[in-house]
Amino acid sequence: MSEILSGGPERPPWRPPRWLIVAAVAVVTIAALVVSLILVAGEETSPSAAPQRSPSPPSSTGSPFPDGSDAAGPRDETPGLVITGVALGEGSLNRHDRTANTGPWTVTVRRPDGSLGLNGAVVTFPVPKPQAGRPVRIGSAAGWARDGEIVWPVADSYARVRSDLPKSQLVAIATATTVASGRPQVRPPSGLSVVSTGAARPHYLREARYGSGEVGEASELSGGLTFTGVAHCGGFEDLLYASDTQPSGTVRGKPAVITSELGGNGVLAWEPTPGVIAYVGYSGAPLDRGAIAALHRLAERTRLLSAQEWQATAPSTVDQVNDFG
Question: What ranges do the domains of the chain cover?
Fold first, then answer.
């Protein structure tokens, strides 16, 4: 038998006074207003809600980039290079090598007085077996030597060192080279240091093209093509050691070299930062003192763009193998 508890006689339900209802509604309304104001103030001061700045407008010359100092882009992204004060138009190009990172790898070493293509060496692995050369011992291995170059067997393939250093130092560099996970590693001999490592071929070659008359150098470079470019790789410097390359003063305080082995009639190249190579070249007139002077004038007028700024120039993209040979 269930127990029933009685609460006493029934009472009519309690109803709050009208004044109390009005006061409660007012309190709720004021509280909601205060919360809304706090949320709005938080959104205005939050970094994620900061207004986005519009891109800088084109300069009066029609160029999609501003004149000024070199842009500082992320270290792992290839920048672009443009000549300031000249409209680029549709002259920007990305040469895209989708397989660059699966190809040969490089290590660049230099003396303290070394610079791009001077007083240094580039080790590349893997490379093809050479067809000729003078015999040379690399540890217990039999290698092949040619002027400024040694190739030797290692890790079931072959490695190569190219340099303008004496043969004894090439042998020392080769002896100090090992291969791990398919990539060369160099413990630099005394007097040398590693300045960069990376793919032999650049993932991107950024190029800008102008008429030599448009950049004001038709008298020295003829009416042909003037171009700028940037490569982030070791293969560029490796080719410099294998070709006729000469020192050529400085560009913005960085040692520069001149060569006719990189396309066109001549190319002036320098290294803004280790492993990143910038260049200005042309086609049309013979490579003489006047042309070299013109390339220097143009190089001093160049400006690096970050990868994002470069993409804002709407470059066309071509898929290819960026092999310097």
Answer: 80-98+201-319, 104-198
Q: Residue 268's beta-bridge partner residues?
A: 258, 280
User: Nearest to residue 81, comparing CAs of 240, 315, 318, 238?
Assistant: 315
Contact 182, 260 (CB under 8 A): no
Residues 178, 154, 109: CA angle, nearest 5 degrees: 40
Q: What are the structure tokens assigned to 93, written together? A: 């190009």
Percent composition of the chain: helix, strand, coil (DSSP 3-state, to 5): 20, 35, 40
Q: Give per-residue pLDDT as tens, 183-240.
A: 999 999 999 999 999 999 999 999 999 999 999 999 999 989 999 999 999 999 999 9
Q: How far apart are CA 263 and CA 279, in angstroms?
A: 11
* Cα dihedral value 149, 151, 152, 155, nearest 10: 120
- Whether the upstream peptide bond of residue 126 has omega within 30° of 0, thus cis, is yes
C-alpha closest to that of 298 among 237, 240, 256: 256
pLDDT at 81: 97
Per-residue pLDDT band at 18 (split at 50, 70, 90): low
Which single residue is written with the structure tokens 């004044």?
19
pLDDT reading at 114 higher than 90: yes
Residues 6+ apart with CB under 8 A from 196: 107, 108, 234, 274, 275
Q: Which residues contact 308 (CB under 8 A, 6 or more apart)?
A: 73
Neighbours of 10 (CB within 10 A): 6
Q: How far apart are CA 145 and CA 163, in angstroms?
A: 12
From CA 251, how far away is CA 240, in angstroms rounded? 17
Residue 57, both tokens: 């407008």
Check if the beta carbon of residue 250 is closer than 8 Å to that of residue 234.
Answer: no
Give percent of the chain with pLDDT exceeding 70. 76
